[in-house]
Structures are given as C-alpha cells and as structure tokens.
Design a protein that fits this description.
There is one protein chain. 39% of the residues lie in helices and 16% in strands. The protein is built from ten helices and ten strands. The termini are close together. With 303 residues, the protein is α/β, with parallel strands linked by helices. Strands 1-2-3-4-5-6-7-10 form an eight-stranded parallel barrel, surrounded by four helices. The chain has a two-stranded antiparallel ribbon with strand order 8-9. It is globular.
Amino acid sequence: MQLGFVSAILPELSLEEVLAFAAETGFDSVEVMCWPIEPASRRYAGVTHIDVTDFSETQADKCRAAMAKHGVAISALGYYPNPLSTDPEEASAAIRHLRKVIAASARIGVHAVNTFVGRDRTRTVDQNWSRFLVVWPDIVLFAEEHHVRIGIENCPMYFSEDEWPAGNNLAVSPAIWRRIFDAIPSESLGLNYDPSHFVWQQMDYFKPVREFASRIFHVHAKDVRIDRNRLDDVGTLAVPLAYHQPKLPGLGEIDWGRFISELGSAAYQGHIAIEVEDRAYEHSLDARFAALRQSYRFLRNYV
C-alpha cells in the first residue's frame, strides 16, 4: 500500500508545489484535483491542480516530469460532480468534463479517476435507476477504451438542508453497490472507499472490505467524530453535520489499525489518500500543512 493525500486541501499551490510538499513530508502519492476552471459550488470543490480542458501531450509530459522529479506518484485524478443532476446543463457539463479527466488520466499514464455517480436527491434509488442506466454505461465504456479505472466514492453528499432528503450521490451502501456492479460488471468500475461515511450512517465499515475486495480501487483516509449528546437530541434524520464532524485520522472513531489490516488481508495494494476536511485545521496554509504532516505520522505506523 502507498500513503498519499487529496490535493483539494491545498488549492493555492501549483501541482509542482503540491508534489514538492508531498516528497518533503514522505508521502508516496497524491490524488490530484481536476475541476473545471470556474467558481467552486461547495467546499473542497473547484480545485484545479491539473487543467484537463484541452490536455495535450506536452502537458502530460510536464506532469510525468514533475512526478519523476519529486519521486511522488499520482494515485488518481479526482473530480466529484453530479452527473445525474436534475439540471440538464449541470449534468451535461459534469459528464463532458469527467470524460476529459478520464482521457487526461490515460494520457499521463495514471489510468485512475475518482468521482461520484451522482443522484437526483428528490427521488428514490429506484426512481434514479433508469437515469443511471442511461448515463453510466457510456462513461464506463469510455473509461474501458482508455484503460482507466473509475473509483466511485461512497459519500452520500448530504451535508445541509440544500441536499435534503437523500443527498447527491447514489452509491452510498453495499446494497446499491451490488446493484451497480450487476448492471455494469465492467472491471473499469469500482470504489474509492472512504470508511468515515459509514460511521455516521451507523454501518460496519469493515465488512465491505471483504465483500468488495476486487472492487476497491482507491481508499480515502478521513476520520469522523460522532457527537452522541447531539445525536440523542436531533436523531439520525437530522442533517448529518448536526451530529458528526470530519476529523483527521486518529482523532475520530475509526479503528485504523484494524481497517488497514482488513485491507491487507483483502490483498489491497493500492493507494490510501488522506482527505483533510477537519475545520480545526483550515484557518491557514500552515495549519493545513500541519494537518497533513500529523495525519502522515499517524497513518505511517500502519502503511
């Protein structure tokens, strides 16, 4: 396994600077954000360390040269929109850009992209299904043609009343994953597995490692703390951030030793990318550097 981080937490740095920091700290890899050059629609979105809009072989050469210079790999290209949005323009733009990210990943030689399935949050899983079957087989076929693996993150994207009642991402549970993989059995479609999203949903985050071992393409390392007093007060039907907080690895409820042991037992040999979304460390660039260094020291005990 290789230890890295998600570049979204360092939006003011260039790719070269991100890789230099990674090398200096001891990281093996970085998941590099590839959003379109436009204002961010939410926190941690809109970060662009590789602009794939008109991605050329010259640009790919520069990316490969930067990786070689610093001895740091790119674990995947990351772009997390809503391809199943009810806004046709938003959905079309997301799909077009996702295809560009896939093509750029192949051109660089990374061959890995992380994203969301998307969802119409006002409709049930069954009601979303026909749209999923229209949109996603073509995306996966495009990935297959470019020899790229797509890792779907299991974040429900339900953080505020704006995402009520179901969030903006369909692929949030093993039951839905089975349905997705039955419908699209391609070896190019798998998971970017983040155990923290199962903690606040009151789900076992070890079991999926065993059942979906062959489908786990990439892993996010983010912890979470449940405020039990607050949960007793508002219940699980409240907006999730009303009773839980994302934290750095080691500062929440995940048993990282056991989790990484489960990954090892499942023969996972891929990347584990620290995802910093802990507000206690967001007040400055130095604080975010400190968050990554602290997380590195903690997880390097296991990876």
